[in-house]
Every structure is written in structure tokens, then in C-alpha cells.
Amino acid sequence: MSLDKHGIAKRIAQEVQEGYYVNLGIGIPTLVANYIPEGMNVVLQSENGLLGMGPFPTEEEVDPDLINAGKQTVTTLPGSALFSSAESFAMIRGEHVHLTILGAMEVSERGDIANWKIPGKMVKGMGGAMDLVASAKNIIVAMQHTSKDGQSKLLKNCSLPITGLQCVKKIVTDLAVLEVTAEGFRLLERAPGVTVEQIQAATEGKLIVEGEIPEITV
Fold this sequence. Notes:
The chain is an alpha/beta fold. It has one domain (5-208): Glutaconate Coenzyme A-transferase (3-Layer(aba) Sandwich), CATH 3.40.1080. It is 16% helix and 25% strand. The strands form two sheets. The chain has a ten-stranded mixed beta sheet. Strands 7-6-9 form a three-stranded mixed beta sheet, with no helix packed on it.
């Protein structure tokens, strides 16, 4: 049984550590805010100028003026701060973010990421992706393992315009958790009920399998 988007977010939340400043990209990464372990001191950053982002609001808590970079309504926590996007990107470019969680259309076996444009389709802009991948020391990607037509999105080489080169450290998909190494994708965990053979069939890039692969627990 593959993970849904909430399962992916729950698994990525396990990578967050005490004291981290974490940037959440658009899409599945924003859901990670809902699954930070209770009592853990973590500061979530949204690139449009919010530090100290909380979980998504209930209907009673919705404030249409308080949004994240994906234009979703969010909540703030005690001690949070609002500021300009210029200050936000100064924080990003200054390498003051410990962990960046991004979505992706493709990732290569070397850790290249393509997540901002599909040729021939309208795009609003690259957003903060270029700055994030150029400045972040630790990037985790949240994505579907394959496209809607069943094609692998974990490739030998990206076919879409590149956002950043050799920058992704770890990937959590609906099928698996993988570490990007110099040799290729190292399989760390598999989704409940998903076999190594199924993951291998869904991965175009080189997949390294060593020993017994445990199931993901969320």
C-alpha cells in the first residue's frame, strides 16, 4: 500500500530535529507543519515572509490575510514574526535555514532537481526554488515516485529544466525513502506492503539495495 500525501508528510516530519529552522515548499511539504512532534522546538519559515508558522487553521481560525508561499491560509505560533520577502530571502541566502523540504517533478540519481517548469505549460515563475536549492545544506524532496502515466520521476538524468545540481540529500515518495549518494539512490525504507521489486520497477535511476529494507512507520 503506497503512502498518500499525508503519509509522506508524516515521514518527513521524522527528519526534523530540535532547534531546526525549516523552510516548507509548496504542495506536500506544507503538510509537514501538521506533523511536527508535540513539544519539539522547531521554527517553520515561509519564503513570503513568515517565521514561526503553525499548523493549518480550522474553519474558525482562518485569516485570509495570513498565507504561506502557496497562498494557503496558515496559523502563527507565539513569538512568530512577519517581514518582507526581501528579508526572508536574506535569511535563505545567508544559509540560516537548517532544512528545506521541497516538491519536485524529477530528481536525478546525482541529486539534481527539476521542480519549476514544464516546457509548453504556463508557469507563474520559479518562486524561491532557485535560491533555496543554491543556499540550503540539507534538502529533502517530497514527491510521487511516478507520473500519472506510470513513468519514473527518479531518473538517471532529469529531462525537465534544472532547478539545482547535486543538491538533494533525501527523497520521500509514496513508495519509498531514498538517500542520494555518489553511486545512486540508496533505498532506506519501503512503504507498507510495497516490495523492493516494485520500487526497482518504478525507478529509472540506479537503485542501491543493501540487506533487508524495513517498512516506513508513520
